[in-house]
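Example S7 (structure tokens).
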């Protein structure tokens, strides 16, 4: 269930009251949906699922290009009204929407000959392994709440297979090691290249950090096949 709250102005100086109103509105909608005929029909159309979850997505975005883009951090400790009945609600602000858009746009421009899809890692929840997909055009709702976005790039005319992990987190050696470890786990030998994309990566500033992180991996072949890029491109970051 998606609720879109869009305005021309930026986020208010004290956003908690407005966030509570938006959240409450979506929570009430979810409660109505839970008892609706639409949900019953949808549940009956899906076979073999042991449990479903009603998830709300609150898209709270605006047209302010110069103001504060991160409102999630400012409302994270907000005390919500008692009595609301909901299972999960994910909040998307300008910063997170920009991260998702920029990551996908960068992957598509990086190699226009490749088809870019979302990579679906194995969560162990698949009710039919034979029907399990490894990638697809639909973004899993859980990605909205994640600081890492996994994309698969495939060139159908060649053996080229690329796994790209884009992250909201700033570049540092510990984060690079974690992201490389995740890439190694997800790739499992199916891809020919791994790309790790950060918003603030600079080869001049972070090249030594990348080499230090790579040197910690015993699989030298995998480590050498990892490239680190900046998805927030300008003329300084064209090389990587």
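Recovered sequence:
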């Amino acid at each position: 269930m998606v609720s879109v709250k869009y305005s021309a102005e930026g986020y208010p100086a004290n956003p908690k009251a407005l966030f509570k109103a938006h959240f409450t509105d979506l929570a009430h909608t979810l409660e109505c949906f839970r008892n609706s005929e639409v949900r019953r029909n949808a549940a009956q159309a899906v076979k073999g699922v042991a449990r479903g979850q009603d998830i709300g997505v609150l898209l709270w975005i605006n047209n302010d290009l110069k103001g504060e883009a991160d409102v999630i951090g400012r409302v994270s400790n907000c005390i919500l009204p008692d009595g609301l009945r909901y299972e999960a609600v994910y909040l998307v602000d300008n910063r997170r929407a920009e991260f998702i858009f920029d990551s996908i746009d960068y992957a598509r421009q990086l190699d226009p000959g490749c088809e870019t899809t979302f990579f679906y890692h194995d969560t162990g929840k698949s009710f039919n392994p034979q029907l399990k997909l490894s990638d697809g055009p639909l973004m899993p709702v859980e990605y909205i709440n994640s600081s890492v976005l996994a994309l698969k790039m495939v060139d159908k005319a060649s053996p080229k297979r690329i796994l790209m992990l884009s992250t909201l987190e700033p570049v540092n050696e510990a984060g690079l090691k974690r992201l490389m470890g995740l890439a190694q786990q997800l790739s499992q030998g199916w891809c020919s290249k791994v790309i790790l994309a950060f918003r603030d990566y600079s080869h001049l500033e972070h090249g030594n950090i990348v080499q230090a992180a790579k040197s910690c991996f015993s699989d030298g072949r995998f480590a050498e096949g990892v490239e680190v890029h900046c998805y927030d491109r300008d003329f300084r970051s064209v090389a990587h």
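Notes on this example. Residues 96-237 form one domain.
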